[in-house]
Amino acid sequence: MAQETENCDPIGTILIQVHEDLSQLKEKLTKFPLEEREETLDIQNLETAIKRTEMGLKIHIEKYLNVVNHNVLTTPVDDDKLYSSHTSKWLLPSVIDQKSFIFPLESECKLWQPQHSTFPHAFPRMKQKIGLNVKIMQDPENIHPRAAVNANYGISLPHTNERKPCVKVQKLIKGSTITNLTILPASHRTDPYFTPIPVLEADVNKGILSMIERGLIPPTARITLQNPPIIPRAAPLHNFDEAHKTPSAAPFATTQKPQPIPEAKIAPKTQGSKGKGRRSRGRLDRKSIKVTSPSRALQSPWDYDFVIYNGIIDKTAPDFVAFKEHFNLSWGSIFSLLEHIEKFLRDYAIPEVKIKGNNLVALLPEFELKNKLTRYDLLSVSENPAHIQMMLNHPGQRYKGQGGKVKAICKIQATWKGYKARKSFLTFRRQKWASGIIAIAWLLHCHKIRLKKILKESRERHLQNFRTRAKHLAANWNRIRTSRRTIIHIPSLGYSQPVRRNIADFNTEQNMQLGRLCDITDANVSVIYICSHQLNDDLLLYYKKILSLHAAVKSGNLEDKSDLQDRFKMITPEAINIFTKHHMCLATHLKYSPKAIKRIKSLTRGTEAYIVSGFPHRDDLAVADMLDVPILGPEPAVAHLYSSKSGSKSVFDSANVPVPPGLRDLYSHQQMIEQLSQLVIDHLEIQRWLFKMDYEFGGNGTAFCDILSHLKCHKWVLKESSRHGREDWHKKWAQEPALVKISEELAGILAQHAQPVNKKRFSTWREFLHTFLSQGGVVEAYPPAESVTNLTVDMLIEPNGEIRVLSTGDQFHADGPLISSGTTMPQTSVDPQVLSSLCLQIGNACKMRNVVGYLSIDLVTFIDPSTMEQQVWATGLDLSYSNQLALTQLTLYLTSGHLDARLSSLKVPRFVSNKEERTSGLKVPSVPLQATPGYAVMTTQLRHNNLSLVFHYTFLQMCKVHGIGYDIENRQGTVFIFFEHLKRDRLGMLTIGDDLQGVLMTFAHDLFIIHQEISAPNMQGETNFKTTIDETKVILGVIEENKMRYEEELQSKDNKNLSKPDK
Questions:
Q1: Which of 32, 226, 478, 571 has a CA-to-CA distance to 799 between 20 and 30 Å?
Q2: In Å, how far are 865, 1035, 1051 from 1046, measured between CA atoms?
Q3: Cα distance between the two ends of the chain
Q4: d(CA 772, CA 753)
Q5: Using CB atoms within 10 A of its CB, is residue 809 exposed (0-12), middle (13-18) or buried (19+)?
Q6: Burial of 201: CB neighbours in 10 Å, binned 0-12, 13-18, 19+
């Protein structure tokens, strides 16, 4: 019974409730007190009762409409119960006499037209009666319900003077007629970490497809149904000749397919059929329809198409009426969608569109969600989308429809406003971008200015502190140099960044002065050496062994070696491994190495210390400020000024020493051509002219040109000079014609025949000339002689003003005539007194310019062919600690000798050997009997690619096998200097002996043996071993020739002396 109640149509319950309310009203009227019946009834109580009943009816009717709009009930009805005299749960109680309700014709216009009834199509008359009864009960102003109530229930309803507005039971609603459904947002549908929302029962009742479309069920979910909605079965096959029979009635009623209607002719109803209203449930009035064929019954949902002309739907068209009749249940949403379609078609002036009804209904769910019609939606419901799309894409089509002019006006205004806004925006964006660039540039400029100011103040402070410490060092130098002290050697090459960038193996070049460690010869000195390479254990052990030989060298006994590693420390700044490609000098690396600075501070705490730098850099001042120690050297600016080629010329001029003819401070091509032309005319005996840049290293900035051999007017110029004579030739009027001719030819001669010395650095004269003029340089004459010797002299200007000559040597040139490859020490090419005098003059000139510390002077000597006298020219000045001085320190350390640079002599003490002691049978004291002269050949520029294939230990063992080494007893032999352990392609070599010719022969022999051992016939490698050997042989030939000449001169002198008494 309960189940039947749940499945029943709610109209029965509603009408029963209406009947109970009216019964209660009747009982109240019948139970009215007898004494008060004769009196007038209380109208207010009656109105209250009627209002309450009317409100209940409204509520029940709204509930009923809600149920009808949302549920389609197709429950069967029993005919017997339908017409029973008893009260049914489905119909109105039968006690009401339906015939007593006779209404006039004017009330038919007020009849209520409900939605599709939930009753089956088999009871049209009953549905019509129920609708009329409900309408009657709703209208309290109608006189017929009053009479019916009075006749059936004995109730006299009060008369109402005011006419109340009729309650509209149903009104056409535009838009969706369903409640809002739960929809999962699109952003959460693809989020794997989103927790699924709970699914309500109302969502489940909508079906699986609805939940998938709304995102409640993922589209890739696997769905399993216990009772599948579709059961597959075999389709019956009909005979080809058998005619197709359409069933007369559908087995059940559906909302998608209409019921077949048999062919019939429906006659119009007459006015006599009172109380039976017209059936109008969203379909056409059947009074005027004559169905002549079963085509409508055979029609499928795909056939409900209709045509829209000029954006207006013909609501009387049969196709549209059929479509509306079939989809009447969801007509509210369809109506809203059709309005959008009509508006769209009118907007675009589309004359004719055929709409597919099924596609239109399929579009409803999407339309209800977004409530917006797009062009794609219209194309999806039209039968000819290509034609429609072509019309929509036609330019200006939108402006042909309704409101086209207004739309065009708005479009023109919007385009113009957009253009103006875009133009102003572009201007604004450009101005904003420019302002941003200006602001950033200004901020960077201010930041740069601020940094420059900070750096300037910092460097000024460093310079002031440097000068203060230099004064303190000068005042206490006599005490410091004799007391216990620590020397911090920083062999830094503080050249400018462009110069450092073009130095090959720059860090190796800064590590070639390991001979500075030999300062520990003085027992009061401790050395801290800053390395530009991290030396491995083998190299550290090698240098410890070399430095431990000093005591054995003094005593002549190898067993007297002493460990001096507590007196020297080798420190590598940690910034070397950080700034690997920045070409920083060693002082800069040490400045940015706090660990190394901290260690140096701890080693120098409590002792006198000072720094001996290489080529000074402003970061040397910063390091000295960090360590709070003075520097034995000049200011960086002074060193850079007077170490340049032009600056050195000014020092030599002030010292009144001979210099080669030349020019300085050249910065323009025209200036160089004019002055060089004058120089050539003044010195017609000079064949080769040299071009040297102010700031270069190792001969990289040097070029040469043999101008006279390529000068076409050379013979004519010689004739002119001889014609005018020596005195007149130096006058301008005599030189002017020659000057014009030489100036015209000189630029072309230089462009074709000038050659840079280092082809790797400057491949052409054009590149060399550009750099030469950008940084300035000098032009000087090359000595006009076949034999030319270059010298290097190392000096020290002490803080107290004392000037000392520390080392002298003759250069040899294996890589070219203008690049030094090494020296032989001491020098033997110039009279020591003359050389010492020249060097002291230059030293005094430097002293006058506040130069302190180590410096080296380059000179050249030759025999002047015109006077056959020896000439010495000063050619270069370098205010730094040189490689020659470092190797000289190592030579003195290994020989325990004494170098008298003023006399250019090296004295090496010689001890009596054990063999001599045995033969004499006498005990000889361990003191040298006499000091013998010594010579050394030293170089740091040996290179060979195959050296990298041999480890240092193997290399030393190989040399030991061939007898290459150093003899402590005789203080003769060869010592090697290793710079680093990674590439191992460069080598330093020091050969010591008691005879210059013997030393050169030993040097060449050892070098030849090494070259043979590390080179194969088919793998010679890139090396300068061969050229060094050849240069050594040339020097040996010159020495031999000089000896023969010297012997001949002595013999001729002896002959002259012998012939004098005969006369």
A1: 571
A2: 20, 16, 9
A3: 178
A4: 17
A5: buried
A6: exposed
pLDDT score for 175: 55
CA distance 64 to 138: 14
User: Which of 149, 114, 146 lies closest to 128, judged by CA?
Assistant: 114
Residue 802, C-beta contacts closer than 8 angstroms, at least 6 positions apart: none
* Closest by CA position to 473, among listed 461, 462, 485: 485
E strands in 799-866: 803-812, 822-825, 853-863
- Please name the residues in contact with 725: beta carbons below 8 A apart, sequence gap of 6 or more: none
What would you report as the CA-atom Rg of the chain, rounded to the nearest whole angstrom?
A: 61
CA-based nearest residue to 935, from 972, 884, 966: 972
Name the pTM for this structure: 0.63
Does the structure show a pLDDT above 60 at 194? yes
In sequence order, the β-bridge partners of residue 877 are 857
Q: Which SS3 state, helix, strand or coil, does residue 490 take?
A: strand
Instruction: Give pLDDT tens digits for 531-573.
Output: 999 999 999 999 999 999 888 888 777 777 888 888 999 999 9
Chain centroid to CA 778: 45
Helices (DSSP H) in 730-831: which residue ranges?
732-753, 765-775
Per-residue pLDDT band at 734 (split at 50, 70, 90): confident
Beta strands (DSSP E) in 535-615 are: 568-571, 608-615
Give residue-wise pLDDT tens across range 824-867.
Answer: 999 999 999 999 999 999 999 999 999 999 999 999 999 988 88
Contact 964, 1009 (CB under 8 A): yes
What SS3 class is residue 1003? helix
DSSP state at residue 688? E
Q: Look at residue 74 and give its three-state secondary structure.
A: coil
User: DSSP 3-state assignment of 265?
Assistant: strand
Among residues 810, 762, 821, which one has the least CA distance to residue 788? 810
Distance CA 301, CA 732 (A): 120
Q: Residue 301: helix, strand or coil by DSSP?
A: helix
At 522, phi and psi to the nearest 5?
Answer: -75, 125
The SS3 of residue 366 is helix
Q: Which residue has the tokens 């260690």?
A: 599
Render the burial of 404-434: b for 16+ CB within 10 Å, e for the rest: beeeeeeeeeeeeeeeeeeeeeeeeeeeeee
